[in-house]
Specification:
Length: about 290
């Protein structure tokens, strides 16, 4: 095995030590990908049948308490950013109640064919009544009769698939009624991620992944192993924290190339904060 290939394959187990290892990041930069990719590539999310763009437009950079860097742009500012992405072939809107981005996405949806975009959102509800209320409120806020993807947001417990069975049942019922097209979770612990991989209920998972383990559930090698299990089971896997919540802002090319090289991500989400940033991301993916 050539030295570069050894570095690429072995370094994902090194975790945060990567950050100081320029040789490893350079190895990623030098190693060619097996194919060319585009942010606007049409991908299918696992076995859900949902077709969308490879790059999702994130709206939740440092998102909490109904605020994020993207929502700080204002309804028109973020809506214009989403529409700029749409005009560049991006079809995947990544929203959440906790980001406060529903009004911004709703404004963008007024200007595009609804069936041409994928709207993903997330609920923090942990009881059935709250989950039902969220589904009604989310659709009102988004101005849409249905949600393409609804995730249980930020699950952390190893037993979450038992503990929150009531919420899961609400989302299953919503899918049967056509209120949502698919359901799943975003995980914020390796125990929760492993539980998601084993649960037939999880159809799509939003997983934290980057080459240095920044803001992830475990070291990259461990996480990738679980994501491979998900992929083998036909689940959709969407990557997040691709740039390590800004840690890799100055090594974006390597982070993007790493995500594209894994072979386990159907799509990934990155939150741009300006049209220039968004168009730069699109160029970087094409050049990877």
């Amino acid at each position: 095995m050539r030295r570069r290939e050894f570095l690429i394959r072995s370094a994902s187990g090194l975790g945060a030590a990567w950050l100081s290892s320029k040789s490893i990041l350079q190895a990623i930069a030098d190693q060619p990908l097996p194919a060319k990719f585009s942010a606007s590539d049409t991908v299918t999310l696992g076995s859900t049948g949902i077709k969308t763009s490879r790059l999702a437009m994130g709206t939740g950079t440092v998102g909490s308490e109904h605020h994020s860097h993207q929502t700080a742009l204002g309804v028109k500012g973020l809506s214009d950013l989403l529409l700029n992405g749409y005009n560049h072939g991006l079809r995947f809107f990544d929203a959440a109640d906790s980001y406060g981005s529903h009004p911004h996405v709703a404004e963008a949806l007024k200007h595009v064919p609804r069936d041409q975009v994928t709207v993903l959102t997330k609920t923090f509800s942990r009881d059935p009544a709250s989950a039902r209320a969220d589904l009604d409120r989310f659709r009102r806020e988004l101005g849409s009769d249905y949600l393409d993807v609804c995730l249980m947001h930020c699950v952390t417990e190893a037993d979450w698939t038992d503990r929150y069975r009531g919420v899961m049942d609400v989302l299953s019922e919503a899918k049967e009624k056509g209120i949502i097209r698919t359901h799943g979770c975003s995980c914020h612990s390796i125990e929760a991620l492993r539980a998601a991989a084993k649960s037939p209920w999880v159809e799509i998972d939003l997983a934290r992944i980057n080459p240095i383990g920044a803001y992830m559930d475990a070291d990259p090698a461990t996480v990738v192993g679980v994501l491979k299990e998900m992929k083998a089971a036909g689940k959709a896997v969407v990557g997040m924290k691709i740039l390590g919540q800004g840690t890799l802002r100055n090594r974006q090319d390597e982070a993007i190339k790493y995500a594209l090289s894994l072979g386990v991500l159907d799509a990934f989400t990155i939150g741009a904060e300006s049209k220039a940033e968004q168009e730069d991301l699109i160029r970087r993916i094409a050049a990877a």
